[in-house]
Amino acid sequence: GDASARWPLSDVLIIHRFGTLAPGDPIMMVATASRHRQAAFEAAEFLMDYLKSRAPFWKKEFGPDG
């Protein structure tokens, strides 16, 4: 599942915010760099899908009553 083994990437940056966030706030950023634009796009899409489906992130939502 390593993106750098699948695409010729020169760099990857993933930021996942945590703490109290409002609905609609950006939560995640995935940035990839490659000499080939298509490789960067495909790797970023792969990483985002991986993080959304298989990474162990937990959410706790708070409503008006706590």
Explain what you see.
It is a single chain. With 66 residues, this protein is an alpha+beta fold. It has helices spanning 3-6, 37-53, and strands at 9-16, 28-34. A two-stranded antiparallel sheet has the order 1-2. Helices cover 32% and strands 23% of the residues. It has a domain at 3-19 and 26-53. It is elongated, with a radius of gyration of 15 Å. The chain is built from 2 helices and 2 strands, in the order H-E-E-H.
Radius of gyration from the alpha-carbon trace, in angstroms: 15 Å
Lateral strand order in the biggest sheet:
1-2
In terms of DSSP E residues, the strand content is 15-25%
Task: Give the biggest sheet.
Answer: 2 strands, antiparallel
Oligomer: single chain
Alpha carbon gap, first and last residue: 38 Å
Q: Count of helices?
A: 2
Count of DSSP strands: 2
Helix content: 25-40%
Tell the overall outline: elongated
Uncertain runs with pLDDT below 50, 5 residues or more? none
Mean pLDDT across the residues is 88
Provide the succession of SSEs.
HEEH
- Structural class designation: alpha+beta
Question: Which tags fit this structure?
Answer:
single chain, 66 residues, alpha+beta, two-stranded antiparallel ribbon, 2 strands, 32% helix, elongated
Brief description of this entry?
This protein is of the alpha+beta class. It is built from two helices and two strands, in the order H-E-E-H.
Describe how the helices and strands are arranged.
Blueprint: H1 3-6, E1 9-16, E2 28-34, H2 37-53
Antiparallel strand pairs: 1-2
